[in-house]
Write a structure and sequence with these properties.
This protein is of the alpha+beta class. The protein folds into 4 domains: about 100 residues, Trypsin-like serine proteases (Thrombin, subunit H), CATH 2.40.10; about 100 residues, Trypsin-like serine proteases (Thrombin, subunit H); about 90 residues, Roll (Pdz3 Domain); about 90 residues, PDZ domain (Pdz3 Domain, Roll). It is about 20% helix and about 35% strand. It has 12 helices and 27 strands. The strands form 5 sheets. It has a 7-stranded antiparallel sheet with strand order 5-4-1-2-3-7-6. A hairpin with a 2-residue loop joins strand 26 and strand 27. The longest helix is centred in the first third of the chain and has 23 residues. The N and C termini lie far apart (about 95 Å). It comes from Microbulbifer variabilis.
Length: about 475
């Protein structure tokens, strides 16, 4: 009898413990209901690319080879369509999403939770942060509220709302797994200190909001690590603190200007930390300082270890681009570094990251289909400051690349410097126009350009 009573009490204790644990879980229904109307579904169409509709493999195998040529020409071509998510940040129709959701799109359509659909205008995009600002003309709009991503802590609950795989307005929840993740983009640039979460994020969630339990947006869902194409519990969001600055600049001038030092850096390992007089491995070790750059003018030297910039601690070398990039060009900020075992304090006037600020003009108001000539590339003279920074004497600066045109297919990007077309050197705008006019059609031709000071060869073909 005593044994049975003990077992009964144990069951009651376990049930009580489970109930207490359940009570400790966050209640999300009100948060989701309140914020879902401000989350939108985004569909885009890129007519410069086409996808071929294929017959099923089994059906193809049943067709004899002698008849296969009769079927192939009938395959239909259709524009490439993609989808993503976004969220309304103001009642007058401004919407935030990822740059990769709308990149190259000819048409962007936004669907609200009440099924209203609108064609959206792209106000501005920023490839480096993977953010884009859209605008729709609509009334009676709900808008989200920004939160402070700087106050997020590992283990804190967060909620994502979006359209994974095109499923409208789905919600998922999880915790913050890590802060300040450094994930370089395709250009090996690293200007976003990502928030890592275990929230289930899938294709279609891109550009959607990440909420804290106060119902405020603390991040924009942007990337996942996956082997299957779906969520495996590793997702990354752009911090709201960075996004707000980017969005404000896109709204104001259609582009984003970032701070720049002009140094090459690496991590500090244990042996280097001991040699430098650091208590533990931390900071960014300066390996190279380019002449004439803000770092050189401030007195920063190779061998210095930057441990604080603008009052913010530099834990690992990847932290430095995050901090510098958020400083407006022309701002004077303090730098604290270790030099020969001693702490030094300097002042540096932050420069403008090449390819931004006045060195990167706004796109022309002309329709893209009539811009860029045979290459589909809009160019301008290289500013003197950029020549000095990248040690480039001649060439032309790529200001805009028209999607689907030869320049885009060759891999050119805004900010590249074209130095050779075909077998002819390009020294300035006049030279460029002459060379382009003489290029043969339908032939693969070499093209040489500089990207971030590095010379690159590709091929380009101008179709007749």
């Amino acid at each position: 009898m005593v044994k049975r009573c003990t077992q009964y009490l144990l069951v009651l204790c376990l049930l009580a413990s489970g109930a207490a644990s359940a009570r400790g879980l966050p209640e999300l229904t009100e948060l989701i209901e309140e914020n879902s109307p401000a989350v939108v579904k985004i569909n885009t169409v890129d007519r410069s690319r086409v996808a071929r509709g294929n017959n099923s493999p089994q059906y193809q195998q049943e067709i004899p080879d002698i008849f296969r040529h009769l079927i192939e020409p009938r395959r239909r071509q259709r524009p490439v369509a993609s989808m993503g998510s976004g969220f309304i940040i103001s009642e007058d129709g401004y919407i935030v999403t990822n740059n990769h959701v709308v990149d190259g799109a000819d048409e962007v359509r936004v669907t609200l939770t009440d099924r209203r659909e609108y064609e959206a205008k792209v106000i501005g995009t920023d490839e480096r942060s993977d953010l884009a600002l859209l605008k729709i003309e609509a009334d009676d709009l709900s808008a989200v509220r920004w939160g402070d991503s700087e106050e997020l802590q590992v283990g804190e609950w967060v909620v994502a709302i979006g359209s994974p795989f095109g499923l409208d307005y789905s919600a998922s929840a999880g915790i913050v797994s890590a802060m300040g993740r450094s994930i370089p983009n395709e250009s090996r640039e690293n200007y976003v200190p990502f928030i890592q979460t275990d929230v289930a994020i899938n294709p279609g969630n891109s550009g959607g909001p990440l909420f804290n339990l106060d119902g405020r947006v603390v991040g924009i869902n942007s990337q996942i690590y996956t082997r299957s194409g779906g969520s495996i519990g590793l997702s990354f969001a752009i911090p709201a603190s960075l996004a707000q600055d980017v969005v404000a600049q896109l709204k104001e001038k259609g582009r984003v200007d970032r701070g720049w030092l002009g140094v090459g850096i690496r991590n500090v390992d244990r042996d280097m930390a001991e040699a430098m007089g650091l208590g533990k491995p931390s900071g960014a070790l300066v390996e190279q300082v380019s002449p004439g750059t803000p770092a050189a003018e401030a007195g920063i030297k190779p061998g210095d270890v930057i441990i604080r910039f603008d009052g913010r601690k530099i834990g690992v070398h990847g932290d430095l681009p995050h901090v510098v990039g958020q400083v407006r060009p022309g701002t004077e900020v303090p730098v604290e570094l270790m030099r020969k075992g001693r702490t030094e304090k300097l002042q540096v006037v932050v420069g403008s990251l090449p390819g931004s600020d006045e060195e990167r003009s706004q796109a022309s108001n002309q329709p893209a289909s009539r811009m860029g000539g045979p290459l589909g590339v809009v160019v301008e003279e290289i500013p003197e400051g950029m020549k000095q920074r990248w040690n480039v004497d001649t060439g032309v600066l790529v200001r805009q690349v028209i999607p689907g045109k030869p320049g885009a297919k060759a891999g050119l990007r805004s900010g590249d410097i074209i130095a050779q077309l075909g077998f002819e050197e390009v020294t300035d705008i006049s030279d460029y126009e002459t060379v382009v006019d003489d290029l043969p059609k339908d032939e693969l031709l070499p093209i040489r350009f500089f990207r971030a000071g590095q010379s690159t060869f590709r091929t380009i073909k101008i179709e007749s």
